[in-house]
Fold these 2 entries.
Entry 1:
Amino acid sequence: MSKALSKLKHEIKEAIPPATFFFVAFQLIAFTDSLMLKQYGISVSTFVTATVGALIVAKVVLIADMMPFMNRFPEKPLIYNIAWKTAIYMIGAILVRFIEHLIDFIREYGNLSDAIGNMLDKVVWPHFWAVQIWLAVLFSMYCALRELTRVLGGDRIRRLFFTSPAFHMDRDE
């Protein structure tokens, strides 16, 4: 039992950074979406949807990070790993979102063939791709921050962001 509890604790610790990052990002997107729809008299509450979406994306990140090919370019300039990981996360996110839609249509139509046909007709594809564009931007930001943290170290990143600039000059030279 101790081994399982230890693994669960490790998984939760690993999930906190991506879940927090995407929680804040998705809540901001949901809030701005809500503000824009308000002008048309449409009131939406998307807090739960954005929260669940952040948790799903965090899980996609954790699953992708377990793949042996994720840290493919550790000795090259950071942009290589940033672009590579962003692409892998995007493929995972597209697959998860596609399957999520497909499951809903399978429930409604009962079989895979009818579900795919109706899904292709009924999904609002511009909205689907708009979400993917936002995810690409967010994944690239997330990957850039993670790669900087990997190279510079968590303590140095904390000092850079949360101490005065004079402190940086004394310590970093």
Entry 2:
Amino acid sequence: MPNVVHLAERPLYGFAQVDHLLGLPAGTASRWIEGYERAGKTYDPVIRPAPTGELIANWGEFVETRLLAEYRDAGVPVLNMRPAIERLREELQTPYPLASAQMWLHVEGKELVRAIEEKVGLERRLRLVEVRTGQMLGWSRSVESFLKSLEWSDGDDTSDGDPTVVRLRPESDIDQVVIDPLRGFGEPVVRGVRTEVIAELMRAGESTSGIADTYELDQASVEAALRFELRRAG
């Protein structure tokens, strides 16, 4: 019987492709996932426990990079999140704590994250949990944006019965555009049609209504694909 590769372990993207898909400056995904060296000093990765030499990101690493992308304008190096992520990896016993159902879907997740952030002294601008009025804990605005972008399985297709992220939105405010590792070669799609194909047809002179008719899409989906590609190009 062949070995079944868990979805999170499925290799998908070169680092430059991750940057392109998530609108990150060139080289960002490589630094976050694999670490880097500068002026003779080595900087450990924030996503992988240690550098592996593997230049392809798997689905779990891509999902985690999607979250870190929400913090790229925080004014604090995202690499400073490494101690908190290491502790989460240990506590949840998973290589992908930022893509874990245990963290996001279980009641105890928020309290666990808050305790770890306090313990490692994570900078406030990088924290996933914030204290709100009345000492209630809530996810940060960046986390809420990230969580809105995720779609989960029901857990029946995993050995531990926990849900797993099966697709996500690269831009949480563009609902129609999703990235599914099992469709469109993992590229952004609207109802199975790659957004870059729609953009190419538009550049070739096709009308939005013509593209919609060709692929049996509604007008809103075509416009969403074009909006996403325009933002990605910018």
